[in-house]
Automatic annotation (TrEMBL):
It comes from Evtepia gabavorous. Belongs to the UPF0145 family. The lineage of its organism: Bacteria, Bacillati, Bacillota, Clostridia, Eubacteriales. This is UPF0145 protein DV520_05380. SUPFAM superfamilies: YbjQ-like (SSF117782). It holds the Pfam family YbjQ_1. InterPro entries: UPF0145_dom_sf (IPR035439), UPF0145_YbjQ-like (IPR002765).
Amino acid sequence: MILVNTDYIAGQELEMLGLVKGSTIQSKNIGRDITQGFKTLVGGELGAYTDMMNDARALATKRMVGEAEHLGADAVVNVRYASAAVMQGAAEVMAYGTAVKFK
């Protein structure tokens, strides 16, 4: 499956199949929240949260690709990611784009 953040794929004529998306809501455990809270006192990257968001993006992408495959797509164009806090300590990550088939 080809994933691009452009609205075209060089050298390919595309047939649009429709919007596809994947999402997940992730949270860290309370122990990690406490240790990451201490990290904010001294500054620096919050590694546990970076890992959580990377895992969430990967899962959302996998789910989006699954929807695209179900439609018989060869690629997804205009891939975008969005995230939002849904409650304290939990974030939703969504991947979305347009499923296309090569003509």
